[in-house]
Structure formats: C-alpha cells, structure tokens
Amino acid sequence: MRFFVLILTALTVSNSVMASDAVLPPALDAALSDAEARQENAANVRFYFRRNIERFGEKFLEKSYNPAGIEGQQWAILHPKSEDDAGEYRKQVRKHAKKKDGADLALLMISFRDRLAKGVRLAREDDEEIVYSFEINDEYYVSGEGKGADIAKYMDGEIAVDKNTGMIGWVHYVAREPFRPIAIAKIRQFDIYQQFAPAWHEGPMVKVLEKNKVAGSAIIRKIEFDDVVANFDFRPIAEDYPVVSKAGGD
C-alpha cells in the first residue's frame, strides 16, 4: 500500500519573473482561456473513460469508469481478467466498489490561474513548445493513512504551451531537494509529470497521462513507486443521464 496518495498538484518556474498582478504571457493566457472556455461549454457533461496503469514498467491494472453506472459498480476491471488471476481480480473489484463517484471530474484540468498568481518566467522555447516555470501559489497537498501535508514550498515546476495546438501540453512538478512532509516520513524523490489534451473534439481539457516517481521512507516502511497512468477512450454522457443509486433501483 502506498503511504501517500497524490491528490492535487501543479506549479512552474522560469527565467524572467513577472509581477503577481502582471498579465500572463499571451501564449499562456490564451491557452488557459481556451481551457476555461472548453470546461464552461462542458460544465454539465460527465464522461466514460478507460485507464491503464503500468507499475515499475509492467502492466498492473486496466479499468473503465462509467459515472452512469450502478453505485459501487462504476469501475469495471479489465485487467487482470478473472480467468487469469481470480484472486487479484476479486481484490480489485472489492477495492473499486468502495470508491466514490467523480473519477471523471477529477481528470478535468484545473484553471491554473491561482497557481500562477506569483508570476511565471520563460524557461525555454523551441519549434514545438514554450515552457514557463513558476512558484506555486496555492496548495500542493498529499495525504495517506490519516495524515497529510501541503508540500508546495518544497516544489518547483514547469508548464508548457503546445505551439501546434495553442493548448496547455503538460505540467511537471519536482521536489528541489529531499524533504519531510510529516515528521515520520522523508521523501528523497518526488517527480510528477501530467499531460493534457481535449477529451474529444471541442471537449474539456483532461489529464491523459501521468507519470509518478516517488521514493523515500517512513519509520518501518519504504516509500517507492513508479507509475505511468494513461487515461483514454473518453465518451461524453448526456447531462440528463439516468444514475442508478443502487442495484435494482429505478
């Protein structure tokens, strides 16, 4: 079991700082405005998606999520299959039956404007993208096993605008040095990369890929994971979709 569950993240840094009340660079401001408009246009839309998780380079889990499904059965386990690993399949079914609704909404890209309120710097630029660095202005919160901490002060990050699409391409958060989020834990490495894209044509911006590398220790427990999480096959569900609250419900 992981000691930390990542909940929220995002920050960036750069080379020529802008005042916190300054206008963001045109390319970045336009990309954020585009994302905000997309989300507003899909404000009441829920969506189906599939997720593949690789852990330490090997396929660990594949599942699909349908917010219109029966409560406790919104997640379907696609890998491992029951006939291949019955024990692990049952374990994942039980685990996912306890998960609450909202996994699709959690993939929506946050606005980032509050997070960038301290200003940004141009880090680098090439033919494909413009990368800005920034100091996180809001919280970067991690939690697990009943404990949690805001680790924003330990983090550096970058945010990229894709020149071909004019959209936010990715964000990358890295701890600049080892740190203790809580007294009993020391984190040596904390590296989170998140890639974004429209869920569908003219759809909202969603997280399509996340790479998590965390290493450290907590008293008698080693903290280490290296996950690659891919989200795909997004399908919008109408605003008035019928939600069944329990098996056998109307």
Describe the secondary structure blueprint for this structure.
Blueprint: E1 5-6, H1 26-41, E2 46-55, E3 58-65, E4 75-79, H2 86-97, E5 120-125, E6 129-134, E7 141-144, E8 147-150, E9 155-162, E10 168-175, E11 185-198, E12 205-218, E13 221-237
Antiparallel strand pairs: 1-7, 2-3, 2-13, 3-4, 5-6, 6-9, 7-8, 9-10, 10-11, 11-12, 12-13
Q: What does the main sheet amount to?
A: 10 strands, antiparallel
Helix count equals: 2
State the end-to-end CA separation: 37 Å
Radius of gyration: 19 Å
The order of strands across the largest sheet is: 4-3-2-13-12-11-10-9-6-5
Number of strands: 13
* Residue share in β-strands: 35-45%
* Overall form: globular
The helix-and-strand class reads mainly beta
Can you give a write-up of this model?
The N terminus and C terminus are likely disordered. The protein has about 250 residues and is mainly β. About 10% of the residues lie in helices and about 40% in strands. It is globular.
